Amino acid sequence: MFKKRAINKRLQPKSSLENGPQTEELAEPHNTSNLPLKSDDLTPMIHEKFNNTSDLKVKKYINLTIYYIENQINQQELNQNIIGKIKQADEITTETVYASIAINEVEDTDDLSYAILRMIKGSVALFIEGTPKIILASIPVKESRALSRPENESQVTGPQLGFNESLATNVSVIRRYLSTPDLCNEFFVFGTRTNTAVSLLYIKGIASEDLVNRVKHKLNQIEVDALIDSSVLNQHLDDHSWSIFPQMLLTERPDRVSDGLLNGKIALFVDGSTNVILCPFTFIEFFESREDYNIRWPIATFIRLLRIVAMFLSIFFTSIYVAALTFHYEIIPQALLVPLGESRSRVPFPPLFEAVLLEFIIELLREAGARLPTKVGQTMGIVGGIVIGTAAVQAGFTSNILLIIVALSALASFTAPSYTMGNVIRIIRFPILFMAGFLGFYGVMFGFCLLLIHLIRLSSLGAPYLSPFYPPRFQDWVDSVIRLPMKYTNKRPTLTRPADVQKYDPDKVN
């Protein structure tokens, strides 16, 4: 079994001068590796390893045999920089092959399992008769889409760049933002069947060594057969896997990842995924956006407060309406009693059933609009909401006032910058709604207390989830719900316990 391990050294390009075989090694009279000395014996072994797959190609030239997976390598580079160059040599030996190949990443190995893995990743295996080693030249097909705008984290001001599916491209984008040699990049491999590359990025001198070691320890504990996306790795790293709340951020914005690294956080890149894991993360940070730093501080503070109010509105507004109509008529102003009575005069259902029905319809429309093509989905959401809402009121299934309340609650749930936190808000509404329908305001308060206790108990990589409010860290309040001028945000948050606390000298900002 291919064990998960750090592969910093093994995946680095090797030059022909540094890694060419020594003469003394070639002069050994017996074979100490697990490789045969003849291609006639090696070829069946490779075919067996690949289960006789049809895209395994074998080419023979004099005493050189070339093995590769057809769709994994660049055919033009193979013909020009490998086969074409080798044919120009007077004789084919290990030294002449190293000297002839015009490829940067070349290495040799006597481990057949490792050679098979490298062939899957886009390397060509070259075997010379009588030599118990395989030369590997990496020429993978570089198929990746161009960098484009983020799909799920749009903003008006600031960079309009998002990650793509290429691990190397995503890391290079971060290096473009953070041009410092202190940016450390460590590689890991996960999945005994997928062998997915994962990069762990942090800034040495800012990130806490304890935090880095904790993440490495968690990564070393993971044993899976497949890792397809960063969201899967995110769930393996959670401190509380049973909680509905996300404990790490999944983002597709390089500027947000760079800002997090500068604050002492750690980023995890998964090959083939457009989302990057940023950790640790707190509850309040899910309602912050990188755009908040690109606008004036009073506007940024107002927008953050608006998101917090919208969260409470989305969770509790419908529940308060149901509790008031079911148990607590006395709190409704007298001026509203007549419109409420007229609106509900034709509705044969209790407020709880009416609210659950509308919330369910809203969720159906939202999910249908997300799964359909973009233009059709937008039309479906708008037309479906208008048609179904109007028909429901005219048919007497619901009241006008509740339709407005449910629509406002659904609209408020979209204000969260994080898609995962928006989904959490959607789900939490339902249990609190049922508590309000059966227990009134006592149920709403009971649900709020349960929610608060659960948030207090949560942590993200050992850091308190409700920081900086619990435990109270007043020095971090200047950049949480409110955002003060840059002069007062000169210190990194204490959440990550950064090695370098001071960002800049506040006296030299203005």
UniProtKB/TrEMBL annotation:
<keyword id="KW-1133">Transmembrane helix</keyword>
<protein>
    <submittedName>
        <fullName>Spore germination protein</fullName>
    </submittedName>
</protein>
<dbReference type="InterPro" id="IPR004995">
    <property type="entry name" value="Spore_Ger"/>
</dbReference>
<feature type="transmembrane region" description="Helical">
    <location>
        <begin position="432"/>
        <end position="456"/>
    </location>
</feature>
<dbReference type="InterPro" id="IPR050768">
    <property type="entry name" value="UPF0353/GerABKA_families"/>
</dbReference>
<feature type="transmembrane region" description="Helical">
    <location>
        <begin position="305"/>
        <end position="327"/>
    </location>
</feature>
<comment type="similarity">
    <text>Belongs to the GerABKA family.</text>
</comment>
<dbReference type="Pfam" id="PF03323">
    <property type="entry name" value="GerA"/>
</dbReference>
<feature type="region of interest" description="Disordered">
    <location>
        <begin position="1"/>
        <end position="40"/>
    </location>
</feature>
<feature type="compositionally biased region" description="Basic residues">
    <location>
        <begin position="1"/>
        <end position="12"/>
    </location>
</feature>
<keyword id="KW-0472">Membrane</keyword>
<keyword id="KW-0812">Transmembrane</keyword>
<feature type="transmembrane region" description="Helical">
    <location>
        <begin position="401"/>
        <end position="420"/>
    </location>
</feature>
<feature type="compositionally biased region" description="Polar residues">
    <location>
        <begin position="13"/>
        <end position="22"/>
    </location>
</feature>
